[in-house]
Write a structure and sequence with these properties.
Elements: H1 2-11, E1 19-22, H2 23-26, E2 49-52, E3 56-61, E4 64-69, H3 72-78, H4 81-111, H5 117-144, H6 153-186, H7 188-194, H8 197-219, E5 224-227, E6 233-235, E7 238-240, H9 245-279, H10 286-315, H11 325-348, H12 352-388
Parallel strand pairs: 3-7, 4-5
Antiparallel strand pairs: 1-2, 3-4, 5-6
Function: Receptor for activated thrombin or trypsin coupled to G proteins that stimulate phosphoinositide hydrolysis. May play a role in platelets activation.
GO molecular function: thrombin-activated receptor activity
Protein name: Proteinase-activated receptor 4
Length: 389
Amino acid sequence: MQGLLLLGLLVLGPGLEGGLQTHSVYDEGGSTAGDNDSTPEPWAGDRGAHPGLRSFPGQLCVNDSDSLDLPERSRALLLGWVPTRLVPVLYGLVLAVGLPANGLALWVLAMRVPRMPSTVMLMNLAAADLLLALALPPRLVYHLRGQRWPFGEAACRLATAALYSHMYCSILLLAAISLDRCLAVVCPLRSRVLRGHCLATGLCAAAWLVAAALALPLVLQRQTFLLSHSDRTLCHDALPLGGQASYWRPAFVCLAVLGCFLPLLVMLLGYGATLRALATSGQRYNHALRLTGLVLASAVAFFTPSNVLLVLHYSNPGPEAWGDLYAAYMPSLALSALNSCVDPFVYYYVSAEFRARVREGLLHRAAGATSTSREGGSSGAGTRSSSLV
């Protein structure tokens, strides 16, 4: 399982791409990409739908396939305070909270908790959240540098893939956990046969493999382009309009449906059945009822906004969304990443038994360190005494 998790880090990376935009917002409005004088006003011009991407679609500069032209409104949104200030703060919070919380949780689950089927699933969830935090520093540097990517094309693809893989792999694992808990509560006798290590390992492996398959379109396409009339190399935030929509549209519709909406539906049905079973069991399950509701609410709150915005880009809902959807998508994606900070406290630290295991493990390590230092001190004292004789 450890090797499978490392394989997931290298291969996973579902990217959320695509969107239906309009010439009036994202295009330069002329027959050539470099004709900036003919750029229309943000809300003026032809309002017919034009297939584009979820990222800011740009026109390739004439005689320069490495540079993209963006209209003034798109450029202002891309370089505004949301991507250069708010998004780094959210990612920094994920690093500051998610990294130690998930690292400690994974260590306790692996070393201090009996290896039950549910433990296997929670270990995979903690590993997925931990991998997200470890993949964030390059993105954090990129946003803090004012959308300047210094690490090259391959690193951009890998960092983008690792970031997006958190969302989809985590949702798939959360759906697997909801099925496991539903079986335990709704069918307690039958679940003794069904809820084995083979089922838990199979569900976790399926989650990683499905996320890896959904990631392939992202890792196969170029992600870095120069922003025209600047020294900025963009990573994933602006992509060429021509020829992209036919490739990205089916890939990212599959991502939204298979990677988010179907797992959320499984969670709604599974936890709904769990809540009904607990509600008919009496007052002694009030805590479990509240905890189950919290788990379901947190998953919907963190993962739904970014995926709804993704679908709205493709459906072209109306003029009120033109030009602003990707600017709203960037913080919503960071909000999805924040779920990795919530998972440890909802799934692990809320349990008194788990907190006791954490204290036991920390005290054991502290006692071991103290014992080692005392032995070293005694050995040193003996050596000094011998030398004095």
